[in-house]
Design brief:
This protein is of the alpha+beta class. The chain has a domain of about 80 residues: Ubiquitin-like (UB roll) (Roll). Helix content is about 30%, strand content about 15%. It has seven helices and five strands, in the order H-H-H-E-E-H-E-H-H-E-E-H. A five-stranded mixed β-sheet has the order 2-1-5-3-4. Strand 1 and strand 2 form a beta hairpin. The site of FE2/S2 (inorganic) cluster has 14 residues, from loops.
């Protein structure tokens, strides 16, 4: 599915400028995280220990090509996993699907096994640098048996639409 990027970017950027996007985000439960991240606070993921015999696996391909594979628990998000292992994933909005700094590029082999992105995720993806056909947001992907072994690459750059558009 090809994305139409520029018209949606224009609409979203206009929403940021007029405050329409801000009021939408106020309805989200993580507004405080969002606000404190605007002043540069970073949050690290909280990982669960996988139950014996129920370990799932995820591989991150870092910007330098290095691959890191982790045993993880069902339900943990890729953002929490990355931050819990000190990988370079900013997650500026604290995982509330409002910044696109957790952009990942999913191995096409696993892409179709993921649940469809919702409108909020699609809106943020449209503002991500280096968008690809298999781009997703790490905070929106939760580990499950269906995607055990998933491989994702961290893009060379990410864009924090939140802070840049509020400056
Ligand atoms: S952490 Fe901000 S959109 Fe995922």
């Amino acid at each position: 599915m090809l994305r139409t990027i520029l018209p949606r970017q224009a609409v979203l950027l206009n929403q940021f400028r007029t405050g329409a996007m801000h009021s939408r985000m106020q309805m989200k439960p993580h507004t405080r995280l969002w606000t404190s991240n605007l002043i540069g606070k970073r949050f690290h993921g909280h990982l669960h220990k996988p139950k014996p015999g129920e370990e799932l696996h995820v591989t991150f391909i870092l910007k330098d090509g290095t691959q890191k594979t982790f045993e993880v628990a069902e339900g943990d998000s890729l953002l929490d996993i990355a931050q819990g292992h000190n990988l370079d994933m900013e997650g500026a909005c604290g995982g509330s699907c409002a910044c696109s700094t957790c952009h990942v590029i999913v191995d096409p082999e696993y892409y179709d096994a993921l649940e469809e992105p919702d409108d909020d995720e699609n809106d943020m993806l449209d503002l991500a640098y280096g968008l690809t056909e298999t781009s997703r947001l790490g905070c929106c992907i939760k580990m499950s048996k269906d995607i055990d072994g998933i491989r994702v690459a961290l893009p060379a750059m990410t864009r924090n639409v939140s802070s840049t558009d509020f400056e």
